[in-house]
Amino acid sequence: MDSDTFEKVVQSKYIELPPDTNGHRNKIHVRSAGERSTAQQPTVVLICGLGSSCLSFTVVQHALAAAGVPSFTYDRLGIGRSSPLSPVDGDDVATGSEILQSRHAAELATELDTVLRTAGVSPPYILVPHSYGGVISWEYIAAHAEHVVGLVAVDANSPRSCERPLNDNDLEILTEGVADGAFVYPDIVGLTAANRLPAALWEEWTEKRLPPEPWLHGTGGELAEMQSHSDSCKALHRHALLQMHPLAKWPVTVLKGNTESDLRRMIDASEALGGGTRSAHEDLRKRLEGYSRLEEDQQRDHLLLTDGGAKRYVEAKKSGHWVHITEPELVVGEILSMVGGGSGNEQIVTDLSK
After folding, report:
1. Given a cut of 60, is residue 303 above it in pLDDT?
2. Binning pLDDT at 50, 70 and 90, where does residue 100 land?
3. Does the CA dihedral 32-38-39-44 come out positive or negative?
4. Domains in the chain: how many in total?
């Protein structure tokens, strides 16, 4: 389908947030699809990963609407079609000649609550976070567990994600010595070939074109969030959520992708393009040994958020980190299974509630 077909189902609009501490009235880009049949029907709230536009969930939203399940997602400030981050006084995150405030997950969870209330999307919610969205969802649950009736964590970060043997800073060496424009992440990890987004939205998501309202083109959000990623993961321990089981009787599903395969492809591409050094490549490959097992262990922490609810652990067979872009039907199937619509997908599944 083309983007116009999707946009008839997935509705985009802008909401204006209350003035921030500097008096700015920022605009947030939100996307919704489907309507509740009753006040008790949950809305699926899709939470993007670090620096990612909510356009990545378009196919998921379209399929959920067709199944009668309402959904909502948004671009955080400084990302996608939302307002850019405003420069602040001080010396925090420097981007060119501007200074931007670091944005911790606790602040992003507060922003999520404000966006939901301002947009008129009332609870209950099923949270569906991807990647760093997992950390934001934990902060949201810590503050508003009573609003959440389910969680589908899509290759999502947990408090222990900062313990991974590789992080973004380690990977910077891969592009050293590579010609500008030669190291194209979506191409290297197979996203360009396997993505299921309409062409126009894919080009916008990969920043090959500006959004329809270029004056709202978000900037600064990815760097500001990256700056506080590790601290935000560590800070989750203060809530002791794993001991509290805040979701009580509500279901939790972990849908794990294969991030290790993406990382190995990046190392191989760097080597082929003459980037980095041989010793660096060998070191990174060594540190990847057992990476998937460690990630599985860390992602299973999401299951501990519930006590009496159903627990499922699912491995995507064909996807790297971006499961909702390359296998959106897997994400949709797990959501429908949670709300009672069945799944039927072929994957590695452990139903831990039996």
Report:
1. yes
2. low
3. negative
4. 1
Taking a C-beta distance cutoff of 8 angstroms, is the pair 6, 62 a contact? yes
Rounded CA separation 210/45 (Å): 25
Q: Which residue has the tokens 């490959």?
A: 285
Owning domain of residue 54:
3-351
DSSP H/E element including 273: helix 259-273
Beta partners for 152? 253
The pLDDT score that the predictor gives to residue 351 is: 40
What confidence category does residue 343 fall into, taking pLDDT thresholds of 50, 70 and 90?
Answer: very low
**Contact between 217 and 47 (Cβ < 8 Å):** no
Q: Looking at residue 99, what is its pLDDT?
A: 58
CATH number for the domain that contains residue 120: 3.40.50.1820
Q: Are 12 and 33 in contact (CB under 8 A)?
A: no
CB atoms within 10 A of CB 351: 12
Mean pLDDT of the chain: 91
CB 171 within 8 A of CB 266: yes
Query: What is the SS3 assignment for 347?
Result: coil
